Amino acid sequence: MDLTTAAASLSAFLLLVNLVSIALAWSQLERRRTLRPPGEQAPPVSIVVPARGVEPFTAETLERAFRLDWPSYELIFCVAHSDDAVVPAIRAAMARFPHIPTRLLTGDDRISGNPKLNNCVKGWEAAHHDWVILADSNVLMPRDYIQQMMGAWRADSGLVCSTPVGSRPDGFWAEVECAFLNTLQARWQYTGAAAGLGFAQGKSMLWSKPLLDANGGIYALAAEIAEDAAATKLVNGLGLKVHLVASPFEQPLGYRTREAVWSRQARWARLRRVTFPFFFAPEICVGAAIPLLLALIAAASAEVSLFWTTLAVLAAVYLPEYALAVAKGWYASPRLIPAMMVRDVMLPAVWLRGWVGGAIDWRGNTMNISTKSDEPEEVLSGA
């Protein structure tokens, strides 16, 4: 096989894989709709929310947590340090909704190099109910948040999760973050679910407390530096599955800088690299960069127009991806396609960064992410 044929064939194959991934994710996802409130017989639920610092949408995300349509649930807010700026905001929300059973717990249990997991330990141990949701503080919970989570639980479930879907971007780099979170990362997570490869996502996780407690409790999630990676391996080891909600929940982004987007993506790449190297390795082929490069090599060798080749490849990649965002009610604007292009320019560098050791920034803290969750160069203090 000559160079032209090989490059053209591999480019076409990668474009087909991209299209199939969109089709599979499309089949798994539903457009957002509100479920009816459950009956009074619905089981009580504990929601553990690790929090740190005040963000632009903190007041709204806090209020949403107190307005859920579920007959009996408790909120347990966990903060590592009592002088954290988020503490007054939590107390103010608790005062506005005194009818919702709520506790604010402070303190830091160092069970791992994962600051969020450390922050959750006290909440998990204090939870009164058999169903526990671990929910990041920046999740914008809809009124039917618990219905969506509980409704995704099946007979063979060991865990139900929701990946974040970026919304309300302020500025171009926030749109780039939407392009990473939504039609790339969320899409591939739902593609994996369609293929029977369910991966946990730590943004929202519904656990059966008796199930996890019988298998090491929350301490078992310290087996990996990322609690969702540990959760995936634990659930699969039990012969159970990770299931995803039909319509993932929003994470409002607000303003983002280029440095913040790079730092977050580099950290996540490194986490994926050390926890699931077999699945991380082919990520270099995701996006438009590699198919386009191969197509241009083939076009140059065959003396075909480079301009029209570029246009055809970009249309094949981005039009179906944009259609997915529109069809599922995710953020979409004319600026999203340029944001996708910038994302795909970044992807090879992000992938390479995942293979390289060294310091990673985690919310203002510096750490080295190793393959051992209990051997970080520096143990972090925040969530």
TrEMBL record:
A Pfam family the protein falls into: Glyco_transf_21
Source species, domain of life: Bacteria
Protein name: Ceramide glucosyltransferase
Keyword entries, A-Z: Glycosyltransferase, Membrane, Transferase, Transmembrane, Transmembrane helix
GO MF annotation: an example: ceramide glucosyltransferase activity
Main location group: membrane
Localization: Membrane
Keyword Acetylation attached: no
TM segment ranges: 6-26, 274-300, 306-331
Pathway the protein acts in: Lipid metabolism; sphingolipid metabolism; Sphingolipid metabolism
Gene Ontology terms describing biological process: glucosylceramide biosynthetic process
InterPro entries attached to this UniProt entry: Ceramide_glucosylTrfase (IPR025993), Nucleotide-diphossugar_trans (IPR029044)
Keyword Cell inner membrane (UniProt): no
Membrane topology field: Multi-pass membrane protein
Gene3D superfamilies assigned to the protein according to its UniProt record, in alphabetical order: Spore Coat Polysaccharide Biosynthesis Protein SpsA, Chain A (3.90.550.10)
Gene Ontology CC entries for this record: membrane
